[in-house]
Every structure is written in C-alpha cells, then in structure tokens.
Amino acid sequence: MKFKNSTTLLVISLLTLIFTAQVSQAQNSRPQPSNNNNNQNTANNNWANFTNIQTQFMQGCVGNQNPDPAKLRIKRNFCQCALNVYKTRYTPQIFAQINALASKVGQDGPRLVNLMVKPELDRCSAQTNYVP
Predict the structure, then answer these.
(1) Cβ neighbours of residue 83 under 8 Å, at least 6 residues apart?
(2) Beta-carbon-side half-sphere exposure of residue 51 (alpha carbons within 13 Å)
(3) Residues 6+ apart with CB under 8 A from 111
(4) For 2, how many CA atoms within 13 A lie in the half-sphere containing its CB?
(5) How far apart are CA 30 and CA 14, in angstroms?
(6) Residue 2, C-beta contacts closer than 8 angstroms, at least 6 positions apart
(7) 38 neighbors 46 (Cβ within 8 angstroms)
(8) pLDDT tens digits, 37-86
(9) Residue 41 Ramachandran class (φ > 0 left, ψ -120 to 50 alpha, else beta)
(10) Quick one: angle between helices 92-105 and 108-116, nearest 10?
(11) How far apart are CA 1 and CA 11, in angstroms?
(12) Over the stretch 94-131, which tens digit does the pLDDT of each residue have?
C-alpha cells in the first residue's frame, strides 16, 4: 500500500491532530483510583471509541479514484485488512504517535510505516489479490 498523494498526507495529519488532542486530554484528566485504571485503559485502547480515525484511514487508503466496482471492492477489502493489521498490533494512542512521526518524516514516512507491517500487508495482498 503506497501513499503518494496529498490526500493521504492530509489524512495522516488529521489523524495526528485528533490523536494528539485525545492523548493530551487523557494526560490532563485527573487520575483515577487504581481499581479503575484497568477499565480506563481498556476504554482508551478500544478502537470502537475511535471510529472517526478508522473512517479517515479507509478514505485515505481507498482514495478518490473511481475504478470499476470489482477493483474498488478488492481495494476496500485490502484497506480493511490493513486497518485490521494496525488495530491488532497497535493501540489507538500508539497508532497516533506513529502517524505523527511519519508525518514529520515527510513523503518517506508512510513507506516507513508500511515497512513496519510488511509481512501483514503481504498477507492482505495475498488474501485480496490487491497489489499496492
């Protein structure tokens, strides 16, 4: 999955801003009693609480092109597989930090992120018959 267009960088930048705000907000909240920390950590690590990030990832991955419906379905399946890779491997907060650093690197940032999960993305390619 190659990210070459400005839309993808915009999505990554937006993800960074959203996650940075959420992480900053979490750091500024008052500490919870120790018996509630596990519940709080579970809630913060639950990707269901970050549906906007997932939507933005899918939009950036699929792109704005209008290929034929069969190719679009294959690409969407690949992008969903890739999203699942990130969700399985990283918490939303770690994913935000990775995106923030990738944005600072510039055009090579997304390639670096893809390299970090290359074996999983190769499996996604094999499952979906989509070659980025």
Answers:
(1) 54, 57, 58, 61
(2) 2
(3) 2, 3
(4) 4
(5) 26
(6) 110, 111, 114, 132
(7) no
(8) 444 455 567 898 888 888 888 998 898 877 789 999 999 999 999 999 99
(9) alpha
(10) 140
(11) 15
(12) 988 888 898 899 989 988 888 989 999 999 999 999 99
Specify burial of residue 98 (Cβ count, 10 A radius: 0-12, 13-18, 19+). buried
| Cα–Cα distance measured from residue 49 to residue 19, given in angstroms and rounded to the nearest whole number | 12
AA identity, residue 83: L
Size of the chain, expressed as the number of residues it contains: 132
Rounded-to-10 torsion of CA 67, 85, 12, 26: 140
Cα separation, 19 vs 1, in Å, equals: 22
User: Residue with structure tokens 């092109």?
Assistant: 65
Which one, of 87, 77, 97, 96, lies nearest residue 47 by Cα?
87
For residue 131 the two structure tokens come to: 């070659």
Residues 6+ apart with CB under 8 A from 40: 32
